[in-house]
Amino acid sequence: MNDQGIEFDVVEDEKVSKALEGNDKVAIVAMTARPGVRSLIMATEWRLFCPLDKALNDKFELLIRKWMDMVFVVMIIPAEYKEKVEQVASEFKLRLVNGFPVVLGGDGSHRFPITCPDGRSFCVENVPGSAVYAKDGASLYEEESAHMDKFWAEEKQKAVAKYQ
């Protein structure tokens, strides 16, 4: 569990692939250094899979996977929640696109190494016009970092009010 109360596991490919067996779940993969991703994760869990409701929160799996010297998060959620996550993502100038991340380099292309049937894996990217295209991504990440504790407290407070 991290400082904001979000639980996660660092996992290997097989665990992620196994969690996606069946047709009722989708994978949303994002590089954690992408501005807005941490806010998306936090808002998705507290708004859609509130930790105060154990049965609901059990539908939300958050896995961490290091790949290509970068840290990625994999959110595994019921497929019927995908559109709701897309709405949350748009708030942070992000969108979900079909497929997994791909890294292109001098030694060829590398696809994120988990197995998921077509149409059930999504990658997070910034939308056109996002501040990431006008400002340095590192400075945006730092700005987001400076506000994470406050954002977490606000999301938790809203959830507590909703469940009272």
Short synopsis of the structure:
The protein has 164 residues and is an alpha/beta fold. The protein has helices at residues 13-19, 37-48, 54-57, 82-91, 137-163, and strands spanning 9-10, 25-31, 61-67, 70-78, 94-98, 102-105, 108-111, 121-126.
Question: What are the main properties of this structure?
Answer:
5 helices, disordered N terminus, two-stranded antiparallel sheet, 164 residues, globular, six-stranded mixed beta sheet, alpha/beta
Structure description:
The protein is an alpha/beta fold and 164 residues long. The chain has one domain. Helix content is 37%, strand content 27%. Strands 1-3-4-2-8-5 form a 6-stranded mixed beta sheet, sandwiched between helices. β6 and β7 form a beta hairpin. The N terminus is likely disordered.
DSSP E strands, number? 8
Query: Which shape, going by the Cα principal axes?
Result: globular
Element string (H = helix, E = strand): EHEHHEEHEEEEH
Given as residue ranges, the uncertain stretches (5+ residues, pLDDT < 50) are: 1-6
Task: Tell me the helix content.
Answer: 25-40%
The helix tally amounts to 5
CA gyration radius, whole angstroms: 16 Å
Report mean pLDDT, rounded to a whole number.
80
Strand line-up across the major sheet:
1-3-4-2-8-5
Strand-pairing-aware structural class: alpha/beta
Distance between termini? Answer: 24 Å
